[in-house]
Amino acid sequence: MLSQEYSTQTNPDCEHIQIKDAVTDQERQAIYQFRYKIQVEEMKRYIPGADHEKKCISEEMDSWSHLAYAELNGQIVGTARAVIGGAEDFPAELSQIFQLKRYQEFDPTSKNMCFATKLMVDPCLRKTPLSFRLMAKVYELSRQHNVQFSFSGSNPYLIPMYEQLGYRQIAPGFQDLGYGFIVPTLLLTEDIDHLKAVKSPYLRLARKLTNSPAAKQWLASNLPEAFKYPVGILTSRQDHWNTIKQLVGDPVAKLEVLCDLNDEEAGQLLKIGTLIECSREHYFIRRGDVCNEVNILLAGQMSVLDGQALPIKPGDLCGDIGIMNQTHHHVDVIATEHSVILVLSRAPFEKLCRSFPEIPGKLHFIIQNKEVK
């Protein structure tokens, strides 16, 4: 998963960055050390299995994966991983969460699935297209191996970036120990109409290849729930507003966070929000999770577990405030009912505030957070 923000700003160093495949043990070890630098040293995450003596993070799937990396002046500045196989090749827990056996029915004899994960970029290069270049390499590898279904998982605050690539949510999220709450996503590699609609950076490569609608048509008939979740960047502000209205009633009246905003500001703020789901009895937040967002419960029930269970009702905030600066959550939050959460992510919020600079001063949770600090 990308470590922090996404952007498409240019950087003078970008033209000198090379995207490479890791073919030697030395290259792979350097990637594992880069992961440690980002996840443990920078983001302060507790990653199970991290080797603190060698300062590296590796997993069993790395042994048969394709690892791509970005190199600048002899140093690794970014990496991404493609793990390609059939349903039976992946760990059982992963197969169950993503329902891989059901997707295997599209072509039972083919190893046509990929997990595109472990995307990380050096902090100095996050506001550049480097993350897209690395994922484009993963997409290229997927097409070379005739992958139809490219799965990934994203922290909620990064969903807008993955949607821009062409991924879509396909299921409620789950806790991945050390990495936080992960939302399962899917890219149909040959769905060129969707790549066009979201203006995916994969489109240029896809146009050079043969693309069939067969996988999308099969999915629509056999797993229609994969299309349940709206793609935020393809949803109008009014449609997004109406969806939230169906969940809570009048958003201005029901969501205290909007109480001091005018209609235009309220609509714009909600538009940058991403709707996600958390299943009953699943943890939404674990103490220590990285926070780059504000989470607002829209439907269902949750509880803060902090010595005793403190209820969270629709309209309440969940967890810490990371919309202005990255922080870490200080409590555990569990869904006591199936819940829908609106996630306001830091990068889209920063962009919104350039057009509506008055908004931060009208949001009580930002003002109160500053006062606490």
Please characterize this protein's 3D structure.
This protein is an alpha+beta fold and 373 residues long. It folds into two domains: 14-227, Aminopeptidase, CATH 3.40.630.30; 235-372, Jelly Rolls, CATH 2.60.120. The chain contains 13 helices and 18 strands. It has helices at residues 25-42, 92-97, 100-104, 130-144, 159-165, 192-198, 203-206, 214-222, 237-248, 251-254, 263-271, 346-355, 364-372; strands at 18-21, 66-72, 75-85, 113-121, 149-154, 168-169, 174-176, 180-188, 274-278, 283-285, 290-291, 293-299, 302-306, 308-312, 317-318, 327-328, 332-335, 339-345. The strands form four sheets. Strands 1, 2, 3, 4, 5, 6, 7 and 8 form an eight-stranded mixed beta sheet that branches. Strand 7 (174-176) and strand 8 form a beta hairpin. Helix 9 packs across helix 11 (263-271). The longest helix has 18 residues, at 25-42. The relative contact order is 0.11. The model is unreliable at 1-10 (pLDDT under 50).
